[in-house]
Known about the structure:
Radius of gyration: 17 Å
Bound molecules: calcium ion
Distance between the termini: 43 Å
CATH architecture: Orthogonal Bundle
Number of helices: 6
Strand content: under 5%
Strand order of the largest sheet: 1-2
Shape: globular
CATH topology: Recoverin, domain 1
Largest sheet: 2 strands, antiparallel
Oligomer: single chain
CATH class: Mainly Alpha
Amino acid sequence: MAFGKYALIGIVAVLSVAATAGGMSLQDFQAMARTRMMRGDADGDGKLSKAEWSAMRAGRQGKTDPGVIFDRLDTNRDSYLDAAEIDALTAKRFERLDTNHDSIVTIDERKAARRGADD
Ligand SMILES: [Ca+2]
Ligand SMILES: [Ca+2]
């Protein structure tokens, strides 16, 4: 059984490397971002409260107050960030990253953005 488990981990690792090497579509990118953001969903209600968001951002070196960013992202003003709001944010980021506008963000484009990014 141990072998099966490690083989599966190996396959998953190979698949994710392949996906990264070939670049990501907006859909991949949004799915990844949603998964990452929802790790901060401490109470598991499927959306991020301002407290959950701030806790998640606490370790990051941003120039802007997380509360200010939250208010900007909470477009329907219900004091939560839901999947649609996160998708909207991610779509904007994707557009910015996709510097050659082929609707695929490659690892190189992401690296280039990271060098210049301050948040
Ligand atoms: Ca939540
Ligand atoms: Ca909201």
